[in-house]
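Summary for the steering committee. One of the milestones for this cycle was to obtain a three-dimensional model of the protein with heme C bound, which we needed before selecting residues for the alanine scan. The sequence and ligand used are listed below.
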Amino acid sequence: MKFLIFSHRFFGVRMKRFWFTALLASLWGGLCYGATIDTKSLGYNGGENAHPHNLSSLNTGGGIHAPSGGETQICKFCHTPHGAASKPLWNRPDPVGPNGDGSFPLYGGSDDLVIDDPEVVGDSKYGQNPYPNGASRMCMSCHDGVTAIGEVVNGPEVQLNREMSVEGTIDLSVSHPISFVYNSTVAGLINAQKNNGGTNTYQLPGSNALLDGQDRMQCNSCHNPHVDTRNDSGTYDLPMWRKYTGVENVDYEWTCEQCHVGGSTSAGIYWGSPTVNDHHDLISP
Ligand code: HEC
Ligand code: HEC
Ligand code: HEC
Ligand code: HEC
């Protein structure tokens, strides 16, 4: 279904919207009335759960959400069945960003990057307008730390107990590069230039679900915004992790290895000792 929705290849706009609305409605219906809902999902226990993306007043946890008596719809903060800003029935305004004009910094350690090399940018499209794009731009409409979380396209602003935290604010200049095309041409160019001292080898992911419909890496190559994977006991710290077996290091390595041959500890890709526990800064020492 996901492939059909994002591929642009099978349906005209009207059909796509119809199928998407039907999908959203059935998913929401399932969340409301279904008997078995995964305990990590957004709608678990009638919405009475502390999923960090459950911003409704049903959220019984200590995080950001509407105060008691306030908004009870969970999906509304990101989706709307009517009058959406874009796919997938998106209900958020375009992010303001740290510069106040919708622009964002590129990954700052980019001296070694091949994807932003002038000869490669035509293929990788890294940093080209709009940047970030796709699902990542949707994420940054809250994770820029500037755009009000309760602001929606369809309806009045929703009141919340507080705005985005410092930890939740993502600085793209120190985060893994995103919103670039990663296909066999780009991987071939990276390997030909042998970045990072000639030791790194790149491959295409075995699972193409890691890339979006235009072969781009995005925030959701690593994360799934609908699934709350981090646990309270500290035995699993990867937040909203797309690949989930329940064993943290296995899931982390699986993700990196999809593209970086040798995984997170291969020469050059991690300066310092790999830890998933500090902050979003995957790249610098
Ligand atoms: C915090 C934001 C956020 C919330 C809240 C949210 N979604 Fe999403 N949703 C997204 C983003 C971003 C995408 C597109 C990227 C992706 O698929 O991961 C998406 C995609 C989808 C899709 C397309 C299929 C897919 O998984 O790719 C469906 C269906 C969907 N959401 C249903 C829901 C339902 C139902 C709810 C409420 C229970 C909900 N979402 C709440 C952010 C959100
Ligand atoms: C409607 C606003 C909104 C959107 C859109 C949104 N988020 Fe979030 N996200 C939040 C809030 C609020 C938190 C909790 C932050 C806090 O409490 O510090 C959060 C937390 C997270 C966390 C940390 C979870 C944890 O267990 O600590 C991750 C990872 C995350 N978001 C990823 C994403 C990704 C990836 C996208 C896009 C696919 C996205 N978010 C879109 C509002 C949003
Ligand atoms: C290459 C994989 C990868 C990509 C791409 C990625 N993240 Fe993360 N993200 C992680 C990891 C790993 C963590 C856990 C870091 C930690 O706790 O030290 C994390 C943590 C987070 C958190 C929790 C806050 C924190 O500092 O722990 C948020 C919020 C988040 N990511 C949002 C995003 C957004 C938004 C994007 C896209 C702009 C994104 N991520 C892209 C791997 C990734
Ligand atoms: C979908 C493919 C993909 C996945 C998954 C992925 N990466 Fe990357 N990563 C890339 C590409 C492509 C580059 C840019 C390489 C270039 O231009 O030289 C990159 C760049 C990096 C860099 C920057 C290297 C530099 O020279 O500054 C680091 C560090 C990194 N990745 C770590 C990770 C880690 C850790 C994970 C797992 C949590 C991960 N990556 C997952 C494709 C991926």
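Key point for the committee: The two ends are 40 Å apart (CA to CA).
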